[in-house]
Amino acid sequence: MTFSMKRAHAIFQKDYKDLSRNLFVSSTLIMPLFFAVFYSRIGDGGVDITYFVINITFSLVAIFVQCALIAEEKEKNTLRGLMLSPASTLDILLGKSALTFVTTMILIVASSFFMDYAPQNLAVIALALIVSTFFYIGIGTMFGLMTKTVMEASLIVMLPFFFFSFSPMLLPLQDRFAIIGVLEYLPNVLLIDVAHQVEDGAKFGAVGLELGLLTAWALAAFAGSVVMYNRKQTD
After folding, report:
1. What is the pTM of this model?
2. If you compute the radius of gyration of the chain from its CA atoms, what whole number of angstroms results?
């Protein structure tokens, strides 16, 4: 699987123009900042509230924007042209993920700034956030390949939005319902766990298992998006 930086950059520029013209999708980028400012005015909610906003950012930006960018290509019948072009699968998937990745990271940094979040170990948290972003972009890619229009994309992403944003709130119930314990292995919950451990002074070695699981989730999402893309390519 070859990769051309020139082709990926061209796709990045095209996506930037498409996103700037699509007010329905681009206006979604305001929501994470709204939540960050809202909760910062309420008071110090700690790590849990900060990562509630960060998980919302992943759902609204990394998943929805990625899903909408691909759905828009399908709606305009331009994705088929990309698939038939000399660009490789890696060129297209990385090129179409680049804008979502940059936008997600900028909004997470901005939201953290508004919420006065300063992790005890920035390197560990930065790595965990970057790996998590790759996972959510992979989810957004798969949902985008399943949809045909941007409107359809805006509806289908409601499922991962509620699941990844609110599922950590179920954890206090795991003493009554053992099945809820499975949620501890989800990437959104693992990220919160890493953040708590870092605030308690943990370094890379102490959160190695959680970072490894996050990486496994990201690789699984990337592999899933490649398999689904290749399947669509031959339809």
Report:
1. 0.92
2. 18
